[in-house]
Amino acid sequence: MSCRGVCNRYKPEWEAGKPRYTDNSCRCTVCETWLDTIKGTTNFRCNCCNGKVRVLARTGRYRRIRRQ
Fold it and tell me: Sheet holding 33-36: strands in order across?
């Protein structure tokens, strides 16, 4: 699993004031980039490196925001 550099095609469109983990964004830890879950992932795996993507925040504060 290594980044092939095509993940730049799958970057999400950000809205001001919205948390990072929304319904259409996730984070690939291998590529170290944010992806659009609809275009950039397949079965919770990155289309670039095939690594697992993170769809929930790691800290409790942002997890609570996501659950609301």
Answer: 33-36, 25-28, 53-54
pLDDT digits (tens, 9 = 90+) for 6-65: 888 888 887 777 777 777 888 998 998 989 888 888 888 999 999 999 888 777 666 666
Q: For the chain, what are the domain ranges?
A: 20-67
The DSSP code sequence of 7-68 is GGGGPPPP-TT--SS-TTEEEETTTTEEEEHHHHEETTEETTT-PBEE-S-SSHHHHHHHH-
Measure the CA–CA gap between 58 and 39, rounded to whole angstroms.
23
Which of 10, 11, 25, 12 lies closest to 56 in space, CA to CA?
25
Question: Could you tell me if 1 and 28 are in contact, meaning their C-beta atoms sit under 8 angstroms apart?
Answer: no
At 46, give phi and psi (nearest 5°): -70, 135
